[in-house]
Amino acid sequence: MSRPYAAARALGRHLLLLGLSVLIVAPFAWMITTSLKSFDKVHQPPYLVPEQFEWSNYPQALAAAPFAGYYLNSVVMAAGIVAGHLLLDTLAAYALARLRFPGRNAIFLGLVATMLVPTFLTVLPAFDLVIRFGWFNSYTALIVPRLADVFGIVVIRGYLLSLPMELDEAARIDGANRMQILFRILLPLSKPALVSVAVFSFLFAWNDFLWPLLVTSDDQYRTIQLGLAAFTSKYGPYPHYLMAGTVIAAVPAIAIFMYLQRSLVRGLAATAVKE
């Protein structure tokens, strides 16, 4: 392959990626710039560069709805779900990756098969249990039914399979038990996989709308996404306030993803191993 041809291919590939990046970033750019415009300038050019930055839109949007309470509820729910996934998914993944027992592969395949079941089919049974246990309108209803996740088990198991079994054998010779092997040796080496699970779990919890809508009816326990929906119904005719509220709701998820994206990619790439 000649150098000019290779350079042309590389240039075309980069231009294609640049175009796709613009398509993805443009809605976010429009959201941010709209949140910084006055009402009479929202539908006037220039659309992506405000003539004057109206920073007051943000405090006014915050004052229009109890966003502080919504944020707190989302943080509590997301923290509980992330902690549950990291603990329970890790224990399950360790058993499926490092222990030898009859039916291990069948159990794993059964877990993977549950990922093919639409979420909507499991919502009603889970909601019925929440009502029977008296958890409605509580943090327990937001967190406990989603403390474990098959996706996290698959990711962590795949990473553990990439670590040599000689680590376990050497630790057992030194007198370590299974929990010591897991928490002192394997988990420190599995940080990319744990970060991947934590990021996906946080994004799932932070952006979830259906489940909090079903199990809460009081503003005391409503999350940021439900608060934003209520805000939208009230301030829909005022797009500058609506976009300011949307930016406020999206900032934590975007910040965490950007900060941990390298570890996220490493963790997902390392799960593609053969047993």
UniProtKB/TrEMBL annotation:
This is Carbohydrate ABC transporter permease. InterPro entries: MetI-like (IPR000515), MetI-like_sf (IPR035906). The keyword Magnesium does not apply. The chain crosses the membrane at residues 70-94, 106-127, 139-160, 181-206, 241-260. It is found in: Cell membrane. One of its GO terms (cellular component) is plasma membrane. Residues 71-260 form the ABC transmembrane type-1 domain. One of its GO terms (biological process) is transmembrane transport. It comes from Knoellia koreensis. It holds the Pfam family BPD_transp_1. It is a multi-pass membrane protein. Belongs to the binding-protein-dependent transport system permease family. Keywords: Cell membrane, Membrane, Transmembrane, Transmembrane helix, Transport.
